[in-house]
Amino acid sequence: MGNVVIVMAVCICLAASGAAADDQPQWGQKFSRNMISSETGLVDDFDPASGKNVKWTAALGDETWATPVVAQGKVFIGTNNQTPRDPRHDGDRGILMCFNEDDGAFLWQLAVPKLGPDPYLDWPRSGIPSPVTVEGGRIYAVSNRNEVICLDIHGQSNGNDGPYVDEGLHMGIGTDTVYEITPKDADILWIFDVPNQAGTYPHDAAHSSILLDGDFLYLNTSNGVDNTHRQIRKPDGPSLIVLDKRTGRLLARDREGIGPRIFHSTWSSPALGVVNGRKLIFFGGGDGVVYAFDALDSIPPDGEIAALKCVWRFDCDPAAPKENVHQYVRNRKESPSNIKGMPVFFQDRIYVAVGGDIWWGKNQAWLQCIDASKSGDITSSGLVWKNEMTRHCCTTPAICDGLVFIADCAGLVHCIDAETGETCWTHETRHEIWASPLAADGKIYIGTKQKNFLIFAADREKKLIREIRMDSPIAATAVAANGVLYVTTMEKLYALEKQ
């Protein structure tokens, strides 16, 4: 990937007809994390039951939280092991599956034992919730054990390339089993164990979408509370780290002292943008603060772990409690805020959802717009606008044609003016929404946790084009690549194409 972000003034989701089809090698638009796509000619109607406009389907586990990634003729998706593809792997596992993009044929999988025995380290049946990032012949994944794993895109079909050659041991971690490696297994090139090598303590499930910039991999660590929900076991652990994509070496980390202020966990993945010629990494902390760091421009000397330089910080909820934060657990009226979706960079602004924790905090939540061109503590000076939402928000916004589309856990889809923050329209789905919206081909695609998939016009006036009943709940964001729309339910992956 290049080192310059090109910010378009005109929404690329409404690009001119005939735009070239392309892969989708990471979650969201490259660098900025905007949930948009330049694909055109996508479906606006399909029927899972009759097969109308369904190119192919693939069976997954029974809990699929990850968003699919499409690259180099392959589709990658994390799931669980409730319906094993390999009978050798019995019981709960994290699974990363690789399918053929053309026909959905199963190619290979990464099977990872649970981190346990504490379920709060690696929540039962949650599988691998993290979407992968792909570049060249390499896949960068975060496993359910909170390992960053570099994989050969071809799996073991072209041999065990190394330097890592102990895949048989890795598949049997915590047991005496050493598995025979088959052509249907993943080929691991290197592993970085985030908890053990970076000094963190993950909570619930490792969820990170790796940001790739040159030789650098940026990712959140999932550092959080322990099973009591009353303390941060690793308060000095980093929330944001940087690895060398070639070797997995730890190069840099934040030194902002975020740990003690994390109310639940570190959910949000980083974004990147260039402001006044300065390349910045934008990160939503588990303390409800958005940070901007200078991007690395060189590899630190061997043995050195650099401190990321903070350019600005913006407290999204300055009136919230800042000390002894865990005394507010289960308080639905007063608590700190945190950030679950990713910050999106667009035209020198950051758009981010923030609010009380879904499980343990207050109901209040907002979509906020921040001026990314400032420096220092910009809590007072950096707010452009904020729009109050009904209840908690897990999603990342899609910014398109002067509009921001986002959804919340109250089941509302929001269309908001990107310049002013004024609400253009809302739609009540009556069902909790965790998936982020996708803006593509003049449409908004989004699913709910009650099996409904909705298609809207990407317009200032509300127009619901279609509502389709799916086989199981939806938590993953829809993805468009090479003329095909991918919709993931808890149990199936659908490749949809006009027929």
Description:
By secondary structure, the chain is mostly beta strands. The protein has a single domain, classed as Methylamine Dehydrogenase, Chain H. 2% of the residues lie in helices and 35% in strands. It has two helices and 35 strands. It has helices spanning 167-170, 194-199; strands at 54-59, 69-71, 74-80, 93-100, 106-113, 133-135, 138-142, 147-152, 188-193, 211-213, 216-220, 240-244, 250-253, 271-275, 278-284, 289-294, 306-307, 310-315, 337-338, 344-346, 349-356, 365-371, 376-377, 383-389, 398-400, 403-407, 412-417, 423-428, 438-440, 443-447, 452-457, 464-469, 479-481, 484-488, 492-496. The protein has a five-stranded mixed beta sheet with strand order 10-11-12-13-17, with no helix packed on it. A five-stranded mixed beta sheet has the order 14-15-16-18-23, with no helix packed on it. Strands 19, 20, 21, 22 and 24 form a five-stranded antiparallel beta sheet that branches. A hairpin with a 3-residue loop joins strand 34 (484-488) and strand 35 (492-496). The longest helix has 6 residues, at 194-199. It is globular, with a radius of gyration of 21 Å. The two termini are 33 Å apart. Residues 1-20 have low confidence and may be disordered.
Oligomeric status of the shown chains?
A: single chain
Structural class: mainly beta
**Rg calculated over all Cα atoms:** 21 Å
The share of residues in helices is under 10%
**Secondary structure tally, helices:** 2
Major sheet: 5 strands, mixed
Measured by DSSP, the beta-strand proportion falls in: 35-45%
Strands of the widest sheet, in order across it, are 10-11-12-13-17
